[in-house]
């Protein structure tokens, strides 16, 4: 973080994350049991108190000293990618 000049937080709704994970399904050497654990971990994003929680990510975004971009949904993320990839 000390050398970062920009922070981009893809802050999708938890429901979107669950849908994306479910669509992708089990990957690599994973199994159904580990996939179920992953889904539960994702569902708890707003409720957990660790550094991998929504509250911690929000605090990080607010306290970041450089440019910070929060993308709250897929449409905003797609627009950000369109703009940045076109060089505008």
Could you characterize what this model shows?
The structure is a single chain. The chain has 88 residues and is mainly α. It has one domain. The chain is 52% helix and 11% strand. The chain has 4 helices and 2 strands; from the N terminus they run βαααβα. The longest helix has 13 residues. The mean pLDDT is 93.
Q: Give the uncertain stretches in residue-range form.
A: none
Strand content: 5-15%
> Could you describe the largest sheet, including whether it forms a barrel?
2 strands, parallel
In round numbers, the mean pLDDT is: 93
Structural class computed from helices and strand pairing: mainly alpha
Question: How many domain modules?
Answer: 1
How many alpha or pi helices? 4
Would you list the SSEs in sequence order as H and E?
Answer: EHHHEH
Cα-atom Rg, whole angstroms?
Answer: 15 Å
Q: How many strand segments? A: 2
Report the end-to-end length measured between terminal Cα atoms. 26 Å
Protein name: DUF982 domain-containing protein
Organism: Mesorhizobium liriopis
List the helices and strands and how they pair.
Elements: E1 6-10, H1 14-24, H2 32-43, H3 54-63, E2 67-71, H4 74-86
Parallel strand pairs: 1-2
Organism: Mesorhizobium liriopis
Protein name: DUF982 domain-containing protein
Question: Can you tag this structure with a few keywords?
Answer:
4 helices, two-stranded parallel sheet, 88 residues
Short description:
Helices cover 52% and strands 11% of the residues. It is mainly alpha-helical. It comes from Mesorhizobium liriopis.
């Amino acid at each position: 973080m000390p050398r970062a000049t920009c922070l981009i937080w893809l802050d999708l709704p938890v429901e979107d994350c669950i849908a994306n994970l479910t669509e992708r399904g089990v990957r690599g050497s994973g199994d159904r049991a580990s996939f179920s654990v992953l889904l539960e971990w994702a569902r708890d994003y707003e409720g957990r108190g660790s550094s991998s929680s929504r509250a911690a990510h929000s605090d990080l975004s607010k306290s970041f000293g450089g440019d910070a971009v929060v993308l709250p949904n897929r449409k905003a993320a797609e627009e950000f990618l369109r703009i940045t990839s076109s060089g505008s």
